[in-house]
């Protein structure tokens, strides 16, 4: 058996500077998930409050509005609908909204699947497209929160008159969608 010999090695590693080409490219990334409004989404359907499933009785509906426990909608995002093909006067939806308003985070006249589009439309309306003037923009695509297709469409249309280009995906792997004429 040979004795083990201790070796002292001196290792010199020449490190090259790592350059983030994406950061230096002038690309601005917009993640629509950042516009997601937190909160449980629920629907209030007027249909169970219709007489014979066809009409709304004012006296009965006003009594329901007065006696219902609206606190169950605390901090929720509520869509008001009527799933029945019935005669529901406009004032009934307004009365319902007034009863819900002190308790909810937001109220819409919309079925559940439309609530997300409306929430994103509100958030996108707050964007100043001039903030992106002459920018190369990547609209991020994949994520964990539900972003409706309408949000991607609205954002693209909003930015197009101002930006140099619009891409979809991740800054390191994009699909080019629009390039301004030089």
Strand arrangement across the biggest beta sheet: 1-5-6-7
What's the number of structural domains? 2
Helical stretch tally: 4
Shape: elongated
Beta-strand fraction estimate: 15-25%
Largest sheet: 4 strands, mixed
Extract low-pLDDT stretches.
1-11
Instruction: Name the helix and strand elements from N-terminus to C-terminus, one letter apiece.
Output: EEHEHEHEHEE
Give the end-to-end Cα distance, rounded to a whole number of Å: 76 Å
Radius of gyration: 27 Å
Instruction: Count every beta strand, where a strand is a DSSP E run of 2 or more residues.
Output: 7
Average pLDDT for all residues: 88
Q: Which percent bin holds the helix content?
A: 10-25%
The chain-level structural class is: alpha/beta
Could you characterize what this model shows?
This protein is α/β, with parallel strands linked by helices. It has two domains: 1-30 and 127-182, no CATH class; 41-116, no CATH class. 25% of the residues lie in helices and 19% in strands. The protein contains four helices and seven strands. The chain has helices at residues 58-67, 90-100, 112-124, 149-159, and strands at residues 27-30, 41-45, 77-81, 106-109, 136-139, 165-170, 173-179. Strands 1-5-6-7 form a four-stranded mixed sheet, with helices on one face. Strands 2-3-4 form a three-stranded parallel sheet, with helices on both faces. The chain is elongated. The relative contact order is 0.17. Mean pLDDT is 88; it is low at 1-11.
